[in-house]
Design goal:
Blueprint lengths: L20 E10 L2 E4 L5 E6 L6 E2 L4 E5 L2 H26 L3 H34 L2 H24 L3 H30 L5 H61 L1 H24 L10 H27 L1 E3 L4 E6 L6 E2 L6 E4 L4 E5 L4 H4 L7 E6 L2 E13 L4 E3 L2 E3 L2 E5 L13 E7 L2
Helix pairs in contact: 1-7, 2-6, 3-5, 4-5
């Protein structure tokens, strides 16, 4: 696609200088220039030009990776061959070998369908046998049993045993203290008979044994209380687990009917598939209808068009110069991923520069005609004049700051002098309107 540079918004409109001369401002531009892009997306694998290179028309500039397109084209070409063979076979008719192969293929499909029907029927029977209602009842019974056991365990509170053991221990402690006191008194009376001392010694020993027994009884009661609490916690956890299992069993039961419906539908589908295979005729035994041949031809043309489209896309993987010119800009580099329309190279005819007016009004354009002599001066080259001629006058005006202006194209008589000019330079144009 060729693109033209935009007009300068900073240039004022200049009126006619006198009756024989029309003065206008303009810009230096190439006679032809293009922003070049590819028509397909891809990865850049080669950039063959640099800025400033001069190229001929048709010269390669940038290449994209074509491997995937090549494979796609080969596949499409194979499709064309296959569709052509199918069309030829359809027109000619099937051989006995092809008919026999089709009969065998159908028989194999029938055998597979019979197996599939048996498998789906067994799955349905198994589902009927695994009714989750049994699991729900068992889970409910377990929850009730555990709850009853927990209630019974809570009723068997060991706290009274602990209280009794604490009282017995306190009594044994008091008895031990009293016996120890009497024994000490007997020891403090030197006149006391030794038999009496021995009696108190035996009583003290017994009191000590009774105290130890009471202490052991209290320890046992406390251990029993601890074990009872732990047992309650275990039973509570068992109830929670049983309730979870019950909830899962209920969910399974709720989806059970849906599962049976699905399996029944699978059985019916397998039965219908088997019936269809058993009643299907071998299409190769019949002559092809005109409609079948037409469809085959249409499919062949479709595959040919797909292959042709890929061939055209393969041509687009290489960006080439549409005309001879100079590379002004290169915006692609190896490894880039580019999309359709993305500018990769700007090409221009820098050796064929023209001047385009920017402010020639509708009042002056009537005095300008193709072939009139022109003198061009350039702001960037003071003191130099370039002689040219009017090449073309625009047929349609443009709006420029409220005025209607017409673009006039000027070419220079001496192309060698154009070497001093640069694209985008501002010029003053004097057109001999006589």
């Amino acid at each position: 696609m060729e693109a033209q540079s935009s007009e300068s918004e900073a240039i004022p409109v200049v009126k006619r200088q006198d009756a024989d001369t029309v003065i206008a401002e303009g810009l230096v531009e190439p006679a032809r220039w293009s922003d070049l892009s590819v028509e397909i997306p891809g990865d850049v694998v080669e950039v063959l030009v640099e800025i400033g290179d001069r190229v001929v028309a048709g010269a390669p500039l940038v290449r994209l990776d074509m491997r995937e397109l090549v494979l796609s084209l080969q596949s499409a070409q194979q499709d064309v061959i296959a569709q052509q063979a199918a069309l030829d076979q359809l027109i000619k008719g099937a051989s006995q070998k092809v008919i026999a192969r089709a009969d065998k293929g159908n028989a194999d499909q029938i055998a597979q369908a019979e197996v599939a029907l048996v498998v789906t029927q067994l799955q349905l029977e198994k589902a009927h046998a695994e009714d989750p209602a049994i699991g729900v009842a068992a889970a409910q019974a377990r929850v009730k049993q555990l709850e009853l056991s927990l209630a019974q365990a809570r009723f068997q509170d060991p706290d009274p045993l602990v209280t009794t053991a604490e009282i017995a221990l306190e009594r044994a402690r008091i008895a031990l203290a009293d016996t120890q006191d009497e024994y000490n008194k007997a020891l403090d009376r030197p006149w006391e008979d030794q038999d009496i001392r021995d009696v108190w010694a035996k009583r003290l020993e017994q009191a000590q044994l009774d105290y130890k027994a009471a202490q052991a009884q209290l320890d046992n009661a406390l251990n029993a209380k601890k074990a009872h609490r732990e047992g309650l916690s275990v039973m509570a956890a068992q109830i929670e687990e049983a309730e979870t299992q019950l909830a899962q069993a209920i969910v399974a039961q709720q989806s059970y009917s849906t599962t049976l419906d699905i399996l029944a539908a699978d059985v019916e589908a397998a039965r219908l598939q088997l019936e269809a295979l058993r009643t299907r005729d071998n299409p190769y035994r019949d002559e092809a209808s005109d409609e079948e041949v037409a469809q085959a031809r249409a499919m062949l043309e479709k595959t040919k068009a797909a292959a042709k489209r890929l061939e055209m896309q393969l041509e687009d993987v290489e960006l080439t110069a549409p005309f001879a010119g100079t590379v002004v800009d290169v915006q692609a580099k190896v490894g880039d991923q580019v999309n359709p329309g993305q500018v990769m190279v700007v090409l221009a005819t820098l050796d064929e520069l023209e001047i385009h007016t920017t402010d020639l009004t509708e009042l002056d354009v009537g005095s300008v005609a193709v072939g009139q002599s022109v003198v061009v001066t350039v702001d960037a080259l003071p003191g130099r004049e370039f002689v040219g001629v009017v090449k073309e006058t625009a047929l349609q005006g443009k709006d420029y700051r409220g005025d209607v202006v017409y673009e006039v194209t000027v070419t220079l008589d001496d192309a060698s002098e154009a070497g001093a000019l640069r694209w985008g330079m501002t010029t003053m144009i004097e057109i001999d309107a006589r």
